[in-house]
Design goal:
WH-like_DNA-bd_sf; single chain; Metallo-beta-lactamase, Chain A; Arc Repressor Mutant, subunit A; five-stranded mixed beta sheet; alpha/beta; hydrolase; 6 helices
């Protein structure tokens, strides 16, 4: 959601789809042609190393992008495929890259929700999750994946999805942060897929690390990563304060809160904004600050807890 002035967003990302760009020595990136209000100019896939390489996030089910990635590594050996999370703009192309290279796939695990679905919630099959994805090797926080000339540490960053991982390259002070941190916009946190409680804890985990150059799933790289994370944290705290400020005037449903908080939002993002507000409310209900009559769901009505 790109409606805030407090974060130093950078929307300058001239990379064209299919072009191989060496962003840093040992880090190449290729943009997929899947622009949207949620993906910015498209999904960015990364190639780590030289000769024997890893591919991070092969992208959506897109034959042209798979071909561009395979062309980029022609004459090299793909030894690892790493996936940050299982949204359909990041993981489905894994099958094509695996078929072409035989490389094993590393990820946290299959797609899952951050919490059990409430009875009163309607199942939303079009949620954008890649439910067919299964990694060959499941990795957890702190696991190190080693290749020729590089070693990437898995950093658990749940929040955007329950199975979200960043891949840190401590030796180079680089972190491939997937969709947890983006330079062009804030991340969507939409329950039950996402969790604001987890998201905030994951921001703190990244901020405490040494890596200061972030490569994101969408948009340009982010210098001074931990400083940028502090902006994101403050933004979410301000969003929470705005919700509480509106609820201080009386109980409200989520569409009312969205209208009060997201002034001038792109109408295409209104639904996502509602889920982001729900993520905050879920956190506030869990902490006993806000009350609702049943489970905290998108159709609920909320008030300050007495």
């Amino acid at each position: 959601m790109a409606d805030n002035d407090d974060i130093p967003f950078n929307r300058d990302f001239p990379l064209k789809p299919g072009v191989v760009d060496e962003a840093r020595p040992g880090v190449r990136r290729v943009l997929c042609n899947n622009p949207s209000p949620f993906t910015f100019t498209g999904t960015v896939s990364y190639i780590v190393g030289q000769g024997n390489v890893a591919i991070i996030d092969p992208g959506p089910d897109d034959e042209a992008h798979a071909k561009a990635l395979l062309d980029a590594v022609r004459g090299e050996t793909v030894t690892h495929i790493l996936v940050t999370h299982t949204h359909r703009d990041h993981s489905p192309n894994t099958a094509r890259i695996t078929a072409a290279t035989g490389a094993p796939v590393y990820a946290e695990g299959p797609h899952r929700a951050s919490r059990p679905r409430f009875e009163s919630e309607k199942h939303s099959p079009e949620s954008g999750a890649d439910r067919d994805f299964r990694p060959d090797i499941q990795v957890k926080n702190g696991d190190v994946i080693e290749g020729q000339g590089w070693a990437l540490e898995a950093v658990a960053t749940p929040g955007h999805t329950a199975n979200h991982l960043a891949f840190a390259w401590p030796e180079r002070k680089i972190n491939f942060v997937g969709d947890h941190v983006m330079g062009w916009s804030t991340s969507i946190v939409a329950p039950p897929d996402g969790s604001m409680i987890d998201y905030m804890a994951s921001l703190a985990r990244l901020e405490a690390r040494e890596e200061d150059l972030y490569f994101s799933g969408h948009g340009p790289e982010i210098p001074e990563g931990p400083r940028y994370v502090r902006f994101l944290t403050r933004h979410r705290q301000a969003r929470e304060a705005s919700i509480l400020h509106r609820l201080a005037k009386g109980e409200a449903d989520i569409p009312t809160l969205v209208r009060a908080i997201y002034i001038g939002i792109d109408p295409r993002l209104t639904n996502a904004a509602g889920f982001s507000v729900l993520a905050h409310l879920e956190d506030l209900v869990a902490r006993g600050i806000v009350a609702t009559d049943s489970d905290p769901v998108i159709g609920g009505t909320y008030r300050l807890a007495s």
